[in-house]
Amino acid sequence: MEAKRVSETRIVHTDQVLINDLNNYHTLFGGVLMKKMDACATLSARRHTRVKQCVTASTDSVNFLGPIRVTDSVCFESYVCYTGRRSMEIFCKIIAEDLETGERRIAANAFLTFVPLDENKRPVEVPPIIPETEEEKYLFETGKERERIRKLKREQNKELVSRLTVDKPWDY
Q: Do residues 126 and 118 touch, judged by C-beta distance below 8 A?
């Protein structure tokens, strides 16, 4: 399987912040940001694997670093930063730009893990990734540790789920 450059997976999508996207604090609603981030990351995953379906396996903590206001544009940038055998990690960087001053700032970031599926909905192998810029190299080099932490969290979550009930709350 031939490796691909990170730049081949990069997706950039810029939106205007609209009034109906705002929460009661007059900043971009976190759920709107997460939906757009997942959509952008999906395209990076599909661009890397060239399959029809890539599913979100996990989203590491979304770090909201600063508010995004109605006077801002919001730029979603995603790319594959680390690959395993049958999954890939996508980094999402969200940049807010004050449209009046031109000031740009990182407003949020997150790592999402995607699994590519074949026509039978079975996971397929992921091509390796080749980082080129300093940012890409840093994320690639630190990817193994994030993968280890995700595996540990998956095991912890399995334990948690095994102790949960599906009983109707009004029945106890």
A: no
The answer to whether residue 20 scores a pLDDT higher than 90 is yes
User: How far is CA 172 from each of CA 54, 116, 160, 169, rounded to the nearest angstrom?
Assistant: 39, 41, 20, 6
pLDDT tens figures, 59-77: 998 999 999 999 999 999 9
Three-state SS letters, 16-54: ECCHHHECCCCEECHHHHHHHHHHHHHHHHHHHHCCCEE
Residue 16: C-alpha distances to residues 37, 62, 89, 141, 158 (Å): 14, 21, 27, 34, 40
Q: What whole-number distance in Å separates Cα of residue 143 and Cα of residue 138?
A: 9
Distances (CA, A) of 17 to 38, 74, 78, 100: 17, 7, 19, 13
Average pLDDT estimate for 112-126: 97
Task: Say what the pLDDT of residue 172 is.
Answer: 77
Beta strands in the chain (DSSP E): 4-5, 11-16, 53-59, 63-64, 72-83, 88-98, 104-117, 129-130
| Domain covering 4-164, topology | Thiol Ester Dehydrase; Chain A (3.10.129)
pTM exceeds 0.70 for this model = yes
